[in-house]
């Protein structure tokens, strides 16, 4: 003879599993994982912005172009450095600039990198030691591209430019065929004098990197002029302009420190979010089922066969099983995507799944997940038992959802910023938020005493909740008429009012 | 053997007393009617028997045991307010309730198929309940109550909401189960069903028992009524308390005669013969259960 609780659980599970919304929800994560890289590939928009230089000085345009190219090579060198560190390629040439992660690359460093063969040479060297499954280096798009200046614009006076250029950088109607112009820079012949301002036209605030390059180039030219005016030779003036400090950067290796906190918090945060999402869904499905039993007058027939407790536990087990199935399926898809595929999503998921390799973390995550599920499902179940229709249920559900779900965004942000901050630790001890907070914190490491303490507190809370809400559930099953108010719910919890 | 016993059972909801010191016994194999108006306490009493709610005071014994889910394997129950899981098929629904009552899956399915066949729903076994007509769903509901061939079948207002065809089907099913030795307790406020089916009955009013016994005993609580065609008024004959003239022709008049409670129409006939009281017709009118109900329960049968 099968246990009635399991029979109810199996029926609940089957009822939910036959709904279209269950399957849509279940398949949405693998669909996103599958379609994400493809969609991002097609939707990827070049980040390169176009710059037009109108140079009346004859010297500024080549200098600005050279400066932007140098900055571009610096970004490339930094990206190469990260790539080399992530894939253990430093040993190909430990003296190479891209193998040195302890410094901010100066202009001289970047020039040396370019002189030594730049990207092509670096890739060639790295390939010697790269493992066969090492993905190729993904060269970042340049930030800026200089576009030719049309003769009409090159010959126009500043007043005319003031009419022509806004129409190009901020056209009233987007012409998808025409090449867009993001920035136009006008450098007068006597730039630097009080009457001759350098002017920029753009569609919005110009980026700091462009402004920095422009200011650096023009300031250097003005200083050169000034130093030469002081009687020094041009060579000395140029040397003075190139003086720059060596800035050492002290940081933990890639994937450690704050970066590690962020990466290792991703899976727990995701699990925490999945808990919230699957709870809302399976809880509302269960609630619908309970409301259906009440509104269809099924309860009495069921209660003639099994006890209210068997019905209650059966529903809880069924709903937890639905939630676990969904989350196990999603995590299974994530593991498959991480280890059976290559690319952006796999690169993101692999380190994020690392906490699962620690059995204690995995066990704690499963415990908090189950306890969280039980805690919230019990609330849904009681609301279902008190409601004659889904509309009735909504009036209880909305405030409950607000209390449960609202702090999640704050928790996620706080955990990423500092998983052991006082606020986050306090939230960990408030039982209704314990599962979400602890799940979110586990990846970054939580003291054992805190894991156990919060776990025991949560278990006690769930036990008391099951007893108190169980009374409300039992008393409400056959009740009719108006919805119980808070005072009556309180009396039902205390067992002062039965049936 | 006693199938069901209630001994001084009282049920209170707050300060409202729904069942008041109720005692009665249902013997094994009986078809027992539980009669009363709306709010008389019928459903509350049956819920206590099924252990869905607990009595405030008193003792209940069901099949020789205290109420509890351990009895569900031998119990069948059809509530007044009925419903089914809309997305389950007819056969799955019957199987599910059979299993909740402790049947094995194969037994529940086999019995479910047999019931559906008997109720003319064999072709709808795998149809979702939401796609069945109301009448078909009612048959499925009945099947869920009897799938376990219960020793005690409790039916709460079983005929309410049924179309005439399903009322006939239910009566036949009750008679079939009774023929197999099952005890059947059903509540109703439709006296015709009770008249056709009950061996014994109980009348409830405002939670209190006002009568328990056979149909004949129930009828005996009412004064006997006769239709008499005579030349003279029967008033003055032994036992006659009232005679109302209803019409007549050719010197013969029709009288509606009431006897004193406990008065025997046979004694009156004998007195007429001995006294030479001329009679052309002497017809005893059998009171219906409806008359008994109105007589015993009267204005307190219905509760606001």
Keywords:
heterodimer; A: 499 residues; 4-stranded mixed beta sheet; B: 304 residues; Rossmann fold; 2 domains; 13 strands; 31% strand
Rg of chain A, rounded, reads 32 Å
Major β-sheet strand ordering of chain B:
5-6-7-3-8-9
Tally of structural domains of chain B: 2
Order of helices and strands of chain B: EEEHEEHHHEHEHEEHEEEHEH
What's the overall average pLDDT of chain B, rounded? 88
CATH topology group of the largest domain in chain B:
Rossmann fold
Spatial gap, N to C terminus of chain A: 30 Å
Number of strands of chain B: 13
CATH superfamily of the largest domain in chain B: P-loop containing nucleotide triphosphate hydrolases
Describe the structure.
With 499 residues, chain A is mainly alpha-helical. Chain A folds into 2 domains: 4-38 and 257-493, no CATH class; 45-242, no CATH class. Chain A has a 4-stranded mixed sheet with strand order 2-1-3-4, sandwiched between helices. Helix content of chain A is 66%, strand content 4%. The longest helix of chain A has 39 residues, at 257-295. The relative contact order of chain A is 0.10. Chain B is an alpha/beta fold and 304 residues long. Chain B has 2 domains: 2-219, Rossmann fold (3-Layer(aba) Sandwich), CATH 3.40.50; 223-286, Alpha-Beta Plaits (2-Layer Sandwich), CATH 3.30.70. In chain B, 31% of the residues lie in helices and 31% in strands. Chain B has 9 helices and 13 strands. Chain B has helices at residues 42-49, 90-100, 105-118, 134-146, 164-179, 191-197, 215-220, 265-275, 289-297; strands at 2-13, 16-27, 31-36, 57-62, 75-78, 152-156, 183-188, 200-205, 208-214, 225-230, 240-249, 252-259, 279-285. A 6-stranded mixed sheet of chain B has the order 5-6-7-3-8-9, with helices on both faces. A 4-stranded antiparallel sheet of chain B has the order 11-12-10-13, covered by helices on one side. Chain B has a 3-stranded antiparallel sheet with strand order 2-1-4, covered by helices on one side. In chain B, strand 1 (2-13) and strand 2 (16-27) form a beta hairpin. In chain B, helix 2 (90-100) crosses helix 3 and helix 2 runs parallel beside helix 4. The mean pLDDT of chain B is 88. The chains are: A mainly alpha (499), B alpha/beta (304). At the A-B interface, helix 1, helix 10 and helix 11 of A face strand 5, helix 2 and helix 4 of B.
């Amino acid at each position: 003879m099968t246990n009635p609780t399991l029979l109810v659980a199996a029926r609940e599970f089957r009822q939910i599993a036959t709904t279209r919304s269950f399957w849509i929800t279940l398949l949405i994560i693998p669909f996103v994982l599958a379609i994400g890289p493809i969609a991002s590939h097609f939707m990827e928009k070049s980040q390169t912005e176009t710059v037009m230089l109108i140079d009346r000085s004859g010297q500024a345009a080549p200098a600005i172009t050279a400066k932007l190219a140098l900055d571009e090579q610096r970004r490339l060198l930094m990206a190469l450095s990260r790539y080399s560190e992530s894939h253990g390629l430093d040993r190909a040439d430990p003296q190479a600039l891209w193998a040195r992660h302890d410094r901010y690359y100066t202009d001289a460093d970047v020039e040396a990198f370019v002189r030594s063969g730049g990207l092509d040479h670096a890739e060639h060297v790295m390939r010697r030691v790269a493992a066969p499954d090492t993905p190729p280096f993904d060269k970042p798009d340049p930030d800026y591209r200089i576009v030719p200046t049309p003769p009409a614009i090159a010959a126009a006076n500043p007043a005319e430019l003031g009419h022509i250029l806004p129409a190009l950088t901020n056209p009233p109607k987007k012409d998808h065929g025409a090449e867009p112009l993001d920035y136009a820079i006008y450098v007068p012949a006597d730039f630097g004098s009080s009457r001759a301002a350098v002017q920029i036209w753009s569609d919005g605030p110009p980026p700091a990197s462009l402004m920095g390059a422009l200011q650096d180039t023009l300031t250097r030219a003005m200083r050169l002029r000034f130093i030469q005016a002081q009687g020094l030779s041009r060579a000395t003036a140029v040397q003075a302009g190139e003086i720059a400090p060596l800035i050492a950067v002290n940081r933990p290796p890639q994937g450690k420190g704050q970066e590690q906190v962020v990466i290792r918090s991703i899976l727990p945060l995701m699990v925490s979010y999945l808990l919230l999402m699957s709870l809302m869904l399976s809880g509302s499905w269960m609630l619908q089922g309970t409301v259906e039993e009440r509104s269809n007058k099924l309860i009495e027939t069921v209660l003639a066969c099994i006890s209210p407790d068997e019905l209650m536990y059966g529903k809880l087990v069924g709903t937890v099983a639905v939630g676990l199935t969904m989350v196990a399926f999603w995590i299974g898809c994530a593991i498959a995507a991480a280890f059976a595929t290559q690319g952006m999503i796999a690169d993101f998921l692999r380190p994020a799944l690392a906490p699962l390799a620690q059995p204690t973390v995995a066990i704690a995550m499963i415990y908090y997940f189950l306890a969280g599920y039980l805690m919230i499902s019990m609330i849904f179940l009681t609301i279902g038992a008190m409601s004659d229709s889904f509309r009735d249920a909504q009036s209880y559900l909305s405030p409950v959802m607000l209390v449960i779900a609202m702090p999640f965004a704050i928790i996620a942000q706080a955990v990423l910023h500092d998983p052991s901050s006082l606020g986050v630790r306090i939230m960990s001890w408030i039982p209704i938020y314990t599962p979400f907070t602890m799940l979110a914190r586990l990846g970054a490491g939580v003291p054992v005493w805190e894991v156990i303490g919060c776990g025991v507190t949560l278990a006690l809370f769930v036990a008391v909740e099951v007893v108190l809400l169980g009374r409300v559930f039992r008393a409400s099953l056959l009740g009719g008429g108006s919805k119980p108010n808070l005072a009556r719910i309180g009396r039902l919890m205390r067992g002062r009012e039965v049936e | 053997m006693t199938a069901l016993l209630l001994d001084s059972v009282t049920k209170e909801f707050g300060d409202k007393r729904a069942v008041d010191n109720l005692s009665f016994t249902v013997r094994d194999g009986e078809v027992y009617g539980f009669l009363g108006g709306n709010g008389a306490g019928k459903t509350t009493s049956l819920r206590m028997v099924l252990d869905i709610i607990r009595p405030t005071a008193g003792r209940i014994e069901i099949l020789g045991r205290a109420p509890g889910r351990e009895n569900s394997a031998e119990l069948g129950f059809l509530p007044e307010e009925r419903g089914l899981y809309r997305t389950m098929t007819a056969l799955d629904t019957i199987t599910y309730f059979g299993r909740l009552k402790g049947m094995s899956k194969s037994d529940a399915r086999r019995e479910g198929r047999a019931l559906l066949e008997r109720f003319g729903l064999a072709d709808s076994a795998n149809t979702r309940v939401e796609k069945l007509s109301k009448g078909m769903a009612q048959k499925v509901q009945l099947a869920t109550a009897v799938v376990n061939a219960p020793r005690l079948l409790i039916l709460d207002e079983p005929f309410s909401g049924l179309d005439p065809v399903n009322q006939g089907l239910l009566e036949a099913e009750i008679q079939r189960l009774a023929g197999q030795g099952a005890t059947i307790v059903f509540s109703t406020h439709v006296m015709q069903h009770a008249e056709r089916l009950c061996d014994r009955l109980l009348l409830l009013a405002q939670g209190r028992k006002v009568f328990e016994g056979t149909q004949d005993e129930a009828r005996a609580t009412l004064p006997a009524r006769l239709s008499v065609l005579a030349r003279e008024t029967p008033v003055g004959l032994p036992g006659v308390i009232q005679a109302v003239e209803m019409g007549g022709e050719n010197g013969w008049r029709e009288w509606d005669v009431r006897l004193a409670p406990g008065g025997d129409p046979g004694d009156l006939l004998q007195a007429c013969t001995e006294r030479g009281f001329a009679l052309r017709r002497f017809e005893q009118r059998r009171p219906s259960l409806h008359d008994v109900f109105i007589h015993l329960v009267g204005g307190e049968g219905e509760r606001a």
